[in-house]
């Protein structure tokens, strides 16, 4: 049975306790919570942690939506257009860090996240820090969190700086991109709050909150009145679920496209030409026999869209010298894999998230269904060889 449906009883109990009660994450303490909540109920592995991740990502997504609305309506005073984005990045990271530590305890908590609080400390960062602190407190109040103390600016700094962990192959580490796709966020387009859990070097769960992604497929994007706001969640061995961010949509299991003829396949890639070598991806598509034009979307929303079959192929080939980070792919990778897809680098290696904050890959990252993967890999290698011959 899928994780979201199977956890409905726990969800009810946990929802009653909310962020006001502390639900522990270590297995012994978790059992004590379960004994208290429901003596006969057994939790599948990581089910409880997935529930916490979904709640935390949803909370952060609401903060991002608030900031994005102000940004687009130009209600926010802007020294530079980047400023409100930074507020949302920090706010999202602080909220998720705070929410997870509140539930899991802070003693053994480890998080590898994109942002740190260096720029917020000191005089120049004070105004921004105060705005972030307000946003975070407003989000906690709006969520109706019981017994939540008001966070001070020092609490916010600490929460953000909890993301400095180096990760690695031992123990558990949360992996967070508080806003993935900053450029899409500024444009009013796609972005994602991406949260995953690493256990002994393996990604065991992932959540992608995509506030602007249409519920009915990415091609519905331009039509007005189409409901938006998707939340993808995946747990090792339990599949990938899609639910709406506002809970108006019954959670359902999703699968990658099963198309096996490249002529009927489409591919997705970065919206930003500066993030991906679009001449290379065009060449790969041509060699492979893909006829449809690329679907260009910002952020890991691409992985979510692909997990439900909006596109059959994912390509990301950054410009030479760019080094990938684990928070840009951990959640998206398990969302695809649990939906039946395969993710690897251009040499066919699985992605290794156990090496620290960086993700070292050969040339780029690719994903598709198992039927298309051999042709896809061969096409990528042919395109890279052709490129080498030319240069
Ligand atoms: N020069 C770059 N090349 C590739 N990716 C980049 C570059 N600069 C930032 N990114 C990151 O690429 C991701 C966006 O992916 P996409 O290009 O598929 O939309 C984000 O994680 C973004 O960081 P950030 O999290 O700060 O937005
Ligand atoms: Mg990112
Ligand atoms: Mg980011
Ligand atoms: Mg960034």
UniProtKB/TrEMBL annotation:
Pfam families in UniProt: Inositol_P
User: What cofactor requirement does the entry state?
Assistant: Mg(2+)
Which species expresses this protein natively? Adiantum capillus-veneris (Maidenhair fern)
Q: Which family does it belong to?
A: Belongs to the inositol monophosphatase superfamily.
Keyword annotations of the record? Hydrolase, Magnesium, Metal-binding
Question: One biological-process term from Gene Ontology?
Answer: phosphatidylinositol phosphate biosynthetic process
Q: What is the lineage of its organism?
A: Eukaryota, Viridiplantae, Streptophyta, Embryophyta, Tracheophyta
For this protein, the Enzyme Commission number is 3.1.3.7
- Entry's Gene3D superfamilies? 3.40.190.80, Fructose-1,6-Bisphosphatase, subunit A, domain 1
Q: Which GO terms describe its molecular function?
A: 3'(2'),5'-bisphosphate nucleotidase activity; metal ion binding
Supply the name of the protein: 3'(2'),5'-bisphosphate nucleotidase
């Amino acid at each position: 049975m899928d994780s979201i449906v199977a956890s409905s009883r726990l969800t009810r109990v946990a929802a009653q306790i909310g962020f006001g009660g502390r639900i522990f994450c270590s297995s012994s303490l978790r059992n004590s919570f379960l004994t208290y909540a429901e003596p006969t109920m057994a939790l599948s592995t990581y089910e409880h942690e997935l529930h916490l991740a979904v709640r935390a990502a949803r909370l952060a997504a609401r903060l991002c939506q608030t900031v994005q609305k102000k940004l687009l309506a130009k209600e926010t005073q802007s020294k530079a257009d980047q400023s409100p984005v930074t507020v949302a990045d920090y706010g999202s990271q602080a909220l998720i860090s705070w929410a997870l530590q509140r539930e899991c305890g802070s003693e053994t908590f480890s998080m590898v996240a994109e942002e740190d609080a260096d720029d917020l400390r000191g005089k120049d960062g004070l105004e921004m820090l105060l705005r972030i602190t307000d946003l975070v407190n407003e989000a906690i109040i709006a969520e109706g969190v019981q017994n939540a103390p008001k966070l001070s600016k020092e609490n916010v700094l600490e929460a953000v700086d909890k993301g400095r962990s180096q990760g690695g192959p031992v123990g558990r580490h949360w992996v967070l991109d508080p806003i993935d796709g900053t450029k899409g966020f500024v444009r009013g387009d796609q972005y994602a709050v991406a949260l995953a859990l690493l256990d002994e070097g393996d990604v065991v769960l992932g959540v992608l909150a995509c506030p602007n992604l249409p519920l009915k497929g990415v091609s519905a994007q331009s039509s007005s009145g189409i409901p938006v706001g998707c939340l993808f969640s995946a747990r090792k061995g339990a599949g990938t679920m899609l639910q709406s961010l506002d809970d108006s949509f019954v959670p359902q299991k999703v699968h990658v496209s099963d198309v096996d003829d490249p002529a009927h396949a489409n591919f997705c890639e970065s919206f930003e030409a500066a993030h991906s070598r679009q001449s290379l991806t065009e060449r790969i598509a041509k060699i492979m026999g893909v006829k449809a034009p690329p679907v260009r979307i910002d952020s890991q929303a691409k992985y979510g869209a692909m997990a439900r079959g909006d596109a059959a192929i994912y390509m990301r080939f950054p410009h030479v010298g760019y080094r990938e980070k684990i928070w840009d792919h951990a959640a998206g990778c398990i969302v695809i894999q649990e939906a039946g897809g395969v993710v690897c680098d251009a040499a066919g290696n699985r992605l290794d998230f156990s090496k620290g904050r960086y993700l070292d890959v050969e040339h780029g990252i690719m994903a598709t269904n198992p039927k298309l993967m051999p042709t896809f890999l061969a096409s990528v290698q042919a395109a890279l060889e052709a490129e080498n011959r030319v240069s």
